[in-house]
Amino acid sequence: MGGELTWGLPVILYLFLAGVGAGVGTVSASVLLRGGGGGFGGDHFRLARIGALLSPLPVIVGTTLIVFELGQPSRAFNLFKVINLSPMNIGSWLLLVFICTSVLYALAFLPSFMPEMKHLSDRLERVRRGFAWVNVPMGIGVAVYTGVMLGAMPSRPLWNSPILALLFLISALSTGVAAIILLRAIFRRKSADPATEQGYHQSAYLLTASDVMLIGFELMVIFLFIMFAHLTIGNMKYAVSIILPGGDMAMMFWVWVVLIGLLLPGLAELAYVLPRLLYHRHYAAPVAVEVLVSIGVLIGGFMLRYVIVVAGQVTGPMGI
Amino acid sequence: MNDEPRPTSSRRGLVTAMIGAVMTAAAAISTSVFRGGQAKANGNSSEPGTKERKVQYGMVIDVRRCIGCHACTVACKSEFDVPPGVNRSWVEYVEKGVYPNVGRSFLPRLCNHCSEPPCVSVCPTDATWKREQDGIVVVDSGLCIGCKYCIQACPYDARFLNPVTNVADKCDFCIHRVSQGLTPSCVNTCVGGARIFGDLGDPDSDISKLIARNQVTVLRGEMGTLPNVYYISADHTDEIDAGRPEVRKVEVITHRRDKKRR
Ligand code: SF4
Ligand code: SF4
Ligand code: SF4
């Protein structure tokens, strides 16, 4: 490998964290819009709420990291003195809007924790839904742009693929779902009331089933990404060989991203989802499984960014 | 470093005003969409050679005359106080073959001042642009935030983050010299006369004549960047070629911190 990386760990972490935050925000907002107001005994509401509170955090941490990765952090404001067609410029504007709206969206959930403020919380429902409508496209925009930013350069053949943005979007949504599952599992308090338990599992099923679908989709996109790079002759084929068997980063990619990040969690989730899907059995995944699966997906999401960002930089166009 | 007046292209000079900026973005889109059509129209209406030409500074590197002495590297370094470990200009060695059938050729490198510079189109702050008046691609060290996007986007590794100023830096065709009618420092110092600088837009310039009369190549032409640094007799062999069954040995010595071309 050799050579210094122009974009190192802070950028990789940023791409991962911004993806998780954007994914969590999108998922939370979608759940709220699809019936978080009441129904399901308020479980969807709680699901949306935990997502809303989480979503700004990784995005803000990631953004802080990337600002200090700049050669001139104090000049970061220059990004907002112009609007041009640079993906980084568009991305920065999207990020700015998303940070603002996701923080406001999260704040709008706070009164719902205090029973004495129920009145206020009910009144805020419209506000929450309003921000949810904004956060879905903004979250998708932030997630997509991380891929567009890498994909915009012929000088980096591995990244120079339109499907990379789609891959990052799906990974963002999938890691977003995983982060919500993980938080819910950690903060879960077992209840003696069977209805409450039922509600918890009901929304857990919703999350897990979506994650299975996203993971399947992500595997498909990875297959297309690699297959088409490999079928090309020239720069792309040469670049992608680094993650194919025999390449320097093949182990990292296939073990950490595909096996630990996608296949194993996907299969584990499928094992719990299928009985419910096919035979309408009761869905109840043990907390340990939920924790392990979501940690696997999160590790996989990080490693995907890591492998793609590093592999893209240590390979270049063929010849001179 | 670059105190030339800024060009008055529509993309430059507008700040903060969001609406104005949105309109510029829209204008930029429509210009790039319609550029193709306009170019065609121009070509039809005017005879070749009569259409107005732009000044585009460029360089020819006649590798037959290069002796690999690194004088250009050193001249450029001292001209700009380029910090250790980074280069605006450098000379690569390409060694091929197995003894006794071996050869070594030289490849002096610098920014190509591309006509389609990807470094410019990715810059999020408009801190780097191609000058209207002479086609030199410059960096405004007062505006650059050091995001390194342009460094990624350049297919020639011509840019670097200056470790002293912490902003993007690269060859600027010695604007301070050429604007005074002097040749760039590396050209001035070249012992073999291998570097020829001039206006590619002027058909009577030495450089244009040289290009007309010789077989020239550019580096990584397939990137679509339309470089303005041309090479005569350059060896485009790369270390990747060593992996081919019919090529036995290739070694590229970059003389840079990055031991490999990227
Ligand atoms: S050689 Fe690189 S830095 Fe120079 S104009 Fe071309 S893309 Fe930009
Ligand atoms: S490093 Fe500076 S010149 Fe290069 S893209 Fe970023 S802001 Fe523009
Ligand atoms: S033209 Fe000037 S800046 Fe560019 S390589 Fe030569 S000496 Fe260096």
How does this model look, in words?
The complex is a heterodimer of chains A (320) and B (262). Chain A contains ten helices and no strands. Chain A starts with 8 loop residues before the first helix and ends in a 6-residue tail after the last helix. In chain A, helix 1 (9-33) crosses helix 5 (118-151) and helix 7 packs across helix 9. Chain A has 320 residues and is mainly alpha-helical. Chain A has a single domain, classed as Formate dehydrogenase/DMSO reductase domain (Formate dehydrogenase/DMSO reductase fold, Up-down Bundle), CATH 1.20.1630. Helices cover 72% and strands 0% of the residues of chain A. With 262 residues, chain B is an alpha+beta fold. Chain B folds into two domains: 10-44; 57-253, Alpha-Beta Plaits (2-Layer Sandwich), CATH 3.30.70. Chain B has helices spanning 18-45, 71-80, 118-122, 149-153, 175-178, 185-189, 206-213; strands at 57-62, 90-98, 101-109, 128-130, 137-139, 160-161, 168-169, 195-199, 216-217, 229-232, 250-253. Chains A and B meet through helix 4 of A and helix 1, helix 3 and helix 4 of B. Bound molecules: iron/sulfur cluster (3 copies). Residues 122-123, 125, 127-128, 139, 144-150, 167-168 of chain B line the site of one iron/sulfur cluster.
